[in-house]
Design goal:
The complex is a heterodimer of chains A (271) and B (286). Chain A is mainly alpha-helical and 271 residues long. Chain A contains 13 helices and no strands. Chain B has 286 residues and is mostly helical. Classes of the chains: A mainly alpha (271), B mainly alpha (286).
């Protein structure tokens, strides 16, 4: 697009930015209130509610559970996605399209339906309310994200590299380890990060399968908000927002957030 | 060049295929079966196979009202994201470095923030003692707080905020493929800014808007966290009703039937809109 933004466009843009940032900023500001109720910190900021948060064992233990769940699930998802992506991108075989649709289908199923399905299924196989059960369900919903980024990486590789390695006497496994894997490593890493974030933030499905003893942070927050909204939940949210902003800056530096989310022009050239 | 069929691709596919069949298709099939079963507090879930739950949902106006409300909220949310998101995508596209990068982070970054935190932000803004009401009252524009929490209006606003990035991504993806010279060509042929936008730019944005609309509608119709926080217990949508049936009423078969119907509606609407869009664009570019 070569056009320029005129006055009205910039005015519209300003209103848009306020709309986007207002709810996020309000949460962060309210979290610093010294009062015992929801209010702006007009008498100066206080860390009182962040202290309360550190002493709240429920929130701290759910935070740890979320970190563990996200790490295990994203790693398993990447381990599943690498061979699948290679099969789909590099090979032609019966059932290839079906496999791709199957692995991408969790994006199409509403989370609430998955929550219901896993609640019943996991309790039937005796994994209800366990970490294993949570990991299984999270691996299913985050694998599409890793699969997509790895497939993009593989698709942009020149397959002549494989032939070159083979002609130099490298066997398939060595070529994979020494040539392909290092080249798709950035794709695996960015997919892992997207998968981790999606696991860490997931609430709709997880609220069905978490148990009182094992709950993720967003679910704990959700259940707390259902009862009451006080500055403590604003403090939890502020921590989540700060973590998200950090992740955003790191992702942007490493891969370019626009490239990860909107897709590169390189991908279009291949078509 | 793709390798010819050998055992290797099958071996590579086995882990994913097994995991997705066992842990995705089986649970979904189980839910479908569960939705046919019968429940009472005295007997629990009975393994019968009948359509009683679906008949109950279709014959009770209580459920109809909730389906209608869910559809209303999803439609308005989709419209708001189109009206705000599509122009904003165009504006972002036209920005130069470094502003483009900065405001892309502002527009898309919220995707990385928990939907619970974002909805909480809207609860703080929209509440009776919330920032918007306090600001309006201190300016003397209103005397009493406007009720925005626990209303469809509030849910639509908060949900539009949550789903806006998806519309912007969809439209920007389409805009990225365009040749910028087309706009210049239009100007050099004597078209004004408005004509250029209406006749040249907007038609090119439509496929992106359509993709975004399908995505936003599907997510808005099945959203849980935002309606639960902003709508509260009084303003039920399908997703929050399913949650109640499962965790409070314990009528799992009825909850499963509601979830399956929601799933079916979302799929049918998405496929339907997709067909309409494809037909339209096929005619347009013939």
């Amino acid at each position: 697009m070569s056009g320029r933004n005129g006055f009205w466009a910039l005015l519209f843009h300003t209103v848009f930015v306020i709309f986007v940032l207002a709810p996020i900023v309000v949460v962060c500001v309210v979290a610093f209130t010294p009062e015992g109720y929801l209010s702006l910190p007009v008498n100066g900021p206080s860390l009182r509610w962040f202290e309360a948060l550190l002493n709240n064992r429920d929130f701290v233990s759910s935070f740890q559970a979320s970190l563990l769940l996200g790490t295990i699930s994203a790693t398993l998802a990447a381990l599943i996605a690498v061979p699948t992506a290679i099969a789909i991108v590099r090979h032609e075989f019966p059932g290839r399209t079906a496999l791709l649709s199957l692995c991408m289908s969790p994006l199409m199923v509403p989370s609430i339906v998955l929550g219901v399905a896993f609640l019943r299924f996991l309790s039937q196989i005796g994994l209800g309310g366990t970490m294993v059960g949570l990991v299984i369900s999270h691996v299913i919903i985050i694998t599409p994200f890793v699969l997509r980024t790895i497939m993009n990486s593989l698709g942009s590789l020149d397959s002549a590299l494989d032939n070159a390695a083979a002609s130099l006497g490298s066997d398939g496994m060595t070529t994979f380890r020494r040539i392909t894997l290092p080249l798709i490593a950035p794709g695996i890493l960015s997919g892992w990060v997207l998968a981790f974030i999606n696991s860490f933030d997931e609430v709709t499905m997880t609220i069905f399968i978490a148990s009182p003893g094992l709950t993720t942070l967003p679910v704990r927050l959700m259940l707390y908000i259902e009862d009451s909204i006080d500055p403590l939940v604003a403090a939890v949210s502020t921590v989540l927002i700060v973590l998200a902003v950090l992740a955003m800056v790191i992702l942007d530096r490493l891969f370019g957030l626009d490239r990860m989310l909107i897709g590169t022009n390189d991908a279009d050239k291949d078509k | 060049m793709r390798a010819i069929s050998r055992p290797l691709p099958f071996l590579l596919s086995i882990p994913a295929a097994l995991i997705f069949v066992i842990f995705l298709l089986l649970p979904l099939l189980g839910t479908l079966i569960l939705s046919l079963q019968d429940f009472s507090l005295a007997t629990g879930i009975r393994p019968v196979y009948e359509l009683a739950n679906y008949v109950e949902i279709f014959s009770d106006s209580y459920f109809f009202d909730i389906f209608a409300r869910t559809a209303r909220i999803a439609v308005f949310t989709t419209l708001v994201t189109i009206v705000i998101g599509a122009p904003e995508a165009l504006i972002l596209m036209r920005m130069k470095a470094p502003w483009r990068g900065i405001f892309l982070l502002v527009a898309l970054g919220p995707l990385l923030i928990s939907v619970v935190s974002r909805s909480l932000g809207w609860a703080l803004l929209l509440g009776g003692n919330g920032m918007i009401n306090q600001a309006l009252m201190s300016m003397g524009l209103i005397e009493r707080p406007i009720q925005m929490m626990y209303t469809e209006f509030g849910v639509v606003i908060a949900m539009s905020h949550v789903l806006m990035p998806f519309m912007i991504i969809a439209v920007m993806t389409t805009l990225q493929r365009l040749n910028p010279q087309v706009e210049n060509a239009s100007h050099s042929l004597g078209a004004g800014s408005f004509t250029t936008f209406w006749r040249v730019i907007l038609p090119q944005m439509l496929p992106g808007i359509m993709t975004g609309a399908i995505l936003v509608f599907a997510m808005a119709a099945s959203a849980f966290a935002t309606p639960q926080i902003i709508g509260g217990r009084r303003l039920k949508v399908i997703a929050t009703l399913v949650y109640d049936e499962f965790l409070f009423s314990l009528n799992w078969p009825l909850g499963a039937a509601l979830a399956m119907l929601l799933f079916a509606v979302v799929i049918v609407v998405a496929i339907g809109l997709n067909r309409v869009a494809e037909g339209y664009f096929a005619r347009m570019y013939k």
